[in-house]
Design goal:
This protein is an alpha+beta fold. It contains three helices and eleven strands; from the N terminus they run ααβββββββββαββ. Helices cover about 15% and strands about 35% of the residues. It has an eight-stranded antiparallel beta barrel with strand order 1-2-3-4-5-6-7-8. A two-stranded parallel sheet has the order 9-11.
Length: about 180
Amino acid sequence: MKTLTILFVACCIVLPVQATAPAPTTVDDFDIERYLGRWYQIALIPNRFQANCVAETVAEYSREATGRIQVVNSCRDSAGETLRVLGEVRVNSEYADSARLQVRFAPRWLSWLEAVWGDYWVIALHPDYAWALVGSPDHEYLWLLARTSSVSERTYRYVTEIAENEGYATSQLKLESPRVITR
């Protein structure tokens, strides 16, 4: 028994404890209808599913006749070709919060599988919906989006401060291009 106790204590000391940041807060009174339309990517924490995108990343949100919300993400790859992916957006039914969205890029026939839906939370939003800060609750994904292809340096600093305060690794943010920040 003494050996088991020593082994348990040793494991507790040696195994790293991973602290998790609390889930980010989301915006109040989010209006999905006002969010529809074109959004330009200003910055992001790089991720595997956008690894081939090098420029001109845009998301276009629209409501289908069925009531579903469609998103078309597009970008240019290093060869100058346009890459497009079609997805669907929904409010996460686990929460009474319209800013806690989920997005799916898997085929529609797989939409019944919860595993194909990724969290997409609106963390900060300009009152006129001129820019949005969107991320995942696990802090792995983060995007700064805007209605125009650039934002002011002041806006960028303001939004990255919000992201940092919400627990995101803002040092990992990558600008779409140097031209997306204006003075």
